[in-house]
């Protein structure tokens, strides 16, 4: 599928889709969205890039094995779950929040970090699956 | 907060699995993490158990949402015992895997997945929320799918297809049952369900829901008539995987059955008749199946089915002593079945085959090893004073009390066939004169292994054999534990109050 239109478009779409995925991730706490959908959109961005430019180029772009994102994401989610017990001796997974909302992002709490963990795991899993299938095909 | 310990067994395994994933490229580091982590998880399980034993049921609300709205985790004596058994069986399997699993399998994430499986098991035992129980079941079966297919041999994939199909089917039925139950009561918290289900007037609807749960968990526990996936798949993966499957996976189904039928669907004569009938048939059919097999690993698979019958029987009789008998049987069975599959792995290492026709002469060549293997083999029969004897005693006594002679017949039949089968294994595999088997090229026979590997194979077997002996000789302690669990399960008021607080104070 190496048409010039798709290749040119994918160069613009990659950063746009990644930004959109982060927007979806941040929106997730009160509105539709969240880590899972955001992660899927981010991996779609890379898959589209791989379609247009070939798998090798995409791999060079990412620079590391996407599978590495799985333990990283799990660890982030794990720490987000454990932090209330460590910080304020509340039961695990209790939401702890910064008192003041941050600019642009809004309210920040441990739930956001849990979602970021999910986001990373989803990118890692879906890219690993798709890359492996593409390589063996 | 002391209640935090309830979640420690889950957290330890999650952290271990994450660390193992980080060290994906180095099998050596993975082995060290898994070995050290299993010890840690055993210590945590002992800590949880002793706390629960001394201070009674502990509960924690995940996310600090009040029950019945949030997800509750409950460690009563039953759950704590199961967590402890998981840790004991887990440590043995972890060391046995390090010793026997081939590099090709370890390279593709065997150890992380094993710890995800143990994570799921601990979660399933500790949760107090029926939908959360479903989620833990999913973690368990997804991990077990990976473990059963890892390596990709033809017979493994064949077994995995059967295993996969029926377990997914069971999950769908379980999920449907949860949905129906939620539609009936509007709650998912098991303690809350217990109160709400008791208040439903349309008992027919409740019975149908209960039957759905019985089918879903029954497939997972491999009770009659939905057991046939088990002997078709359990002998296909490496012995270390069969050990954790045979020891723990079917027992999760039994655990869920006991939990649901002592807490939510209580005191229904119709259901008790069904459970008793199924138990009798399971005992009977499993034993018959074990008679005709030649592969020792397959014989053990059929023995698992047959012996599930004992635990279900205790549930069906539904008296304190009978449930205590079932709990005692679970404690004995998890240890001994894990060990049996490791023994079959050791025999495979010694001779290069698991076929009874070709095996023989192990006693003449390795008398000490044979004595070690004698312990689990004779424990499973229950030759007094070994561990299988005591729970059967209370089950038979309770069956006599309701004068159900068919059941007593089934128990005695199953025990007799088990004795016969094990005696035949002993005669064929250990006593019979050994045939000259062709040497397999590149097969790592036991005598070719390094001392370190030998210890990793024999250590877990000896450890579990020692625990079996303790269960047999220290039976009064185990009986005391089983009776306490039985009392707690029969008086589910305690469970409900520890989750929801004092009910009478609530409006």
TrEMBL record, chain A:
Residues 5-127 form the Na+/H+ antiporter MnhB subunit-related protein domain. Its main location: membrane. It comes from the Bacteria. Keywords: Cell membrane, Membrane, Transmembrane, Transmembrane helix. It is a multi-pass membrane protein. Belongs to the CPA3 antiporters (TC 2.A.63) subunit B family. This is Na(+)/H(+) antiporter subunit B. It comes from Planktosalinus lacus. The lineage of its organism: Bacteria, Pseudomonadati, Bacteroidota, Flavobacteriia, Flavobacteriales.
TrEMBL record, chain B:
GO terms for biological process: ATP synthesis coupled electron transport. This is Cation:proton antiporter. GO terms for cellular component: plasma membrane. It comes from the Bacteria. It is a multi-pass membrane protein. It is found in: Cell membrane; Membrane. GO terms for molecular function: NADH dehydrogenase (ubiquinone) activity. Belongs to the CPA3 antiporters (TC 2.A.63) subunit D family. InterPro entries: CPA3_Na-H_Antiporter_D, NADH_UbQ_OxRdtase, ND/Mrp_TM. Pfam families: Proton_antipo_M. Residues 129-418 form the NADH:quinone oxidoreductase/Mrp antiporter transmembrane domain. Keywords: Cell membrane, Membrane, Transmembrane, Transmembrane helix. Its main location: membrane. The keyword Cell membrane applies. The chain crosses the membrane at residues 6-25, 32-53, 73-96, 108-127, 133-152, 164-184, 204-230, 242-267, 273-292, 299-318, 324-348, 368-386, 406-427, 457-475.
